[in-house]
Design a protein that fits this description.
- The protein has about 130 residues and is mostly helical.
- It is elongated.
- α2 crosses α3 and α4 runs antiparallel to α5.
- It has five helices and no strands.
């Protein structure tokens, strides 16, 4: 194979990979969308199977902004769940507990007044 055959092959592999990514994004969005009923989802999938490129193009044009909103909502929900899990496992303390702990460290001489002030301002900023 000459150089341009390799370039052509890599180009078509890239195009096919990009198409698969779009296809899976559309399928994920179809199943994520709770406003679309099952029959419409089935119709979209049937058209994706029999007329894939045209259907993908129409779907992205017609429902692209909704795809973005649903994706952002899912990411926001996942972030909230992750934050809640981290808070539950980390044993979050209140600012007053943090200040009391810092005060006891200051009284014992483990930290300086400047470090205590920094810890106090950090606890109050939460």
């Amino acid at each position: 194979m000459d150089f341009w055959s390799w370039v052509s092959w890599f180009f078509w592999v890239f195009v096919f990979t990009a198409y698969l990514m779009v296809l899976f994004s559309i399928l994920g969005d179809l199943f994520r969308d709770s406003t679309l009923n099952g029959w419409l989802k089935a119709i979209w999938i049937i058209f994706l199977i029999f007329v894939p490129f045209l259907t993908a193009l129409i779907y992205v044009i017609a429902r692209g902004s909704g795809m973005q909103k649903r994706g952002m909502a899912q990411a926001r929900d996942m972030q909230e769940q992750q934050d809640a899990y981290i808070r539950s496992t980390a044993g979050a303390s209140s600012p007053s507990q943090d200040i009391a702990t810092a005060k006891s460290l200051l009284d014992s001489g483990a930290i300086t007044q400047a470090e205590f002030d920094a810890l106090k301002s950090k606890a109050l900023a939460r």
